[in-house]
Fold these 4 entries.
Entry 1:
Amino acid sequence: MVQLSLGGATALAQNPIPIRKHVAAAVLWILHLLGTWVVVGAGSVLLYGLGVNAIYGGDYALAGFAQVLAVAWLAGKIVIWEETKRHEARIAIRVLVAIVALAVVTFSIGWIRYSRWSVGIRNRIERLTNTTFSGLT
């Protein structure tokens, strides 16, 4: 078994620390960082933005996945936040967060469906009229 030590060859015999403990500590530290407000806030915005970009790129499955994941990540952080747990109206806060998250996810799915429908309509019109729509007006 490979072992690390904190201080040189003499400490190796006295205080060996297995690599598994270092890996476990690193994983826990990374998971802790993923739960900080800076990472959750920025990550949620970036994931939702990725979903918006995917809508315009025509990748509707990625758009739905990214947007739902972004909303769930942010809502989950709010629900398990220590200040929410200690608040006297925590049940009302959690219900409100769930309602807002559901509304945002519903809006996102509606936006994806509308975008997909409008692209389909545009393609049918182009086929029927033998023309193409350009981005220029």
Entry 2:
Amino acid sequence: MKLTMFEGTPEEYVAIANTLMGTANTVVAIPQQSPAVVARRFVTLEEAKEILSRLELSDNMNNVLVALYKAGSKRLTSDDLKKVNGHNSDEFRGMMGAFGRRVGYTIEGNDIWFFDQKWEGDAYTYTLPESARKAMEEHRMVKQ
């Protein structure tokens, strides 16, 4: 078996494919497409209030939400949020996954976001949309 590595565009590959693979093979290059941008919708005020009040929040999740609230528009990294409760990566992912399930089981539909979460550099960063901030105030999780 012969392995040949090639780096280049699909068009460049097609141009030299017969040389690399021999003439018995037909090569079709399929250009890569950018991943589709998923539309995200942040929770409404009423949805956020329902999410926060349906079941009691764990102290750890409450601490994370309060830290995000206090940060205002400043984006906090996942490392910042892990430090709030002294979590390691697995514990943090478990807590955030549980909160995601809470959102999913409370509000029907996909792509409904409680956090504004973005991948920046080498970590996720988080902030709260205004609807979540207002719901926390009304739920008396924070002082206005």
Entry 3:
Amino acid sequence: MNLETFPELSKKLKGEISLIIRRLDSAVIRMERVTTLVTDHMQRGAYRLDLADGSISKIRLIPRLEEAVAAVILSRYLDPEYFPKVLDSQGSILLVEWIEGRPLTAEEWTTARVYQAAGIQARLHATELKPMDSRPDLSSLGFWWARLEKKVMALKENGYIKSPDAAGVLRRARVRSGNSVKVGIVHGDFCPENFLLRPSNSLAVIDLEILGVTAIPYGLGRTALRWPMSRRLRGLYLDHYGQFSSADEFLENFTFWMMLILVEALLFLGDAGLSQAKQMVKMINDAVLCEDRRQMGSLFGYSLE
């Protein structure tokens, strides 16, 4: 396999990929780039490997080593019916199972498939972690409040929002009750873009590098932002989610978690210089202007009292 035909790969990445290829049981007869997404350092992307024995695997380039390590560890907990297996790793590179499937159109997201997705997310969140793989340091709401304050300060310093708006964010994000939060496995971008429809008509979740151990309400907040739904469909999603896991902590402190999610999204988009940052500023302003949690919930399709 001549990796010199992939100029976007650094010398280090070529060396790590070569080590993985040497450990395969069958020779690679074809390697093809299947994504165009790269970081500034060209260390993110996916490549399809066709092997001489007829099997197919995927090489995933992960931007940060810690993300690759987390994906390897957490993949051991995943249901192989819905998530690809990690077959091997080298540094920040993963060799994963190739999932035969295609993205779904908006019309293909039927109520039944939304139900299935809710069950997948809920069972993932309900997974029992071994103590060595958990993060008890993330189970305090105080930790998350401090994180919000830090992110809001970064928004002010970078000029993304003004001081009065920052004060409004913190005022709107007040915590209603509780001082602890459940921690578990979260897919940080659980939304339609990260699903494939298999030929068997079942769903598969991709992008394992977005897996992490964090607050469960944080994961639900990310889905609320990234997966717009009607109020009816959101209610059905939560009902089915509730059969396997509880969303109570998220809903009780809904305004806090959503303000944190919006603030972090704006910080990411602004730092990346993406045009969507303007839309995120508007969403934050709309959230700050909400008179109560009921109005805040309506922005994302939730019926809250």
Entry 4:
Amino acid sequence: MGEFLSRLAELLHLKQSGAAKLAQMENGLRAARRNNEDRLQDLKAEIRELEARAVQKKQEFDAARGPAKQIVAGEIERVLRERNSLRERARIVEDSIDKIQLAISKIGEAKAADARGVRAEQFDDIAIELDEQLAQLKSDSAAARDLERVKYEAPEKEGAERQAEAADAEVKLSKDVMKELRELEAE
């Protein structure tokens, strides 16, 4: 009796068909894309805030003297490292959005292939490509989560050692840091 009811439900399209599964997957991917787009906007806003803070810290650096100058230089480097980390996370999220869009288009191909009644081999090729895209998305999501956990912390020096260093030498920012700050000030 159960087998008969299962077959009847399938004939009446009461069970989830392949097309319904594709539609459900497509809806899930569209939701994931929207979430990633929101996340990307948040990351870009954080990056802009850090860039503004770096420019502000540069002004503080220019005005600072003695040990305070060394402290501000460290803060600038920390802000720029954090910004660079966020940029990498944003790049991963952008890549994920692209891959999600590609997966959505593969689903569209699968739906069109199903509607045209293509051969099973062609449908399998599309399914394999879609599966590869989904596996890559999972990998990218794991990489982004790993980057979110990383926080830069400057190494601690003894107070007297830090003050002696600051007193002995003029504090300067590295060429790379200065280049990044000039680019930010120019924007």
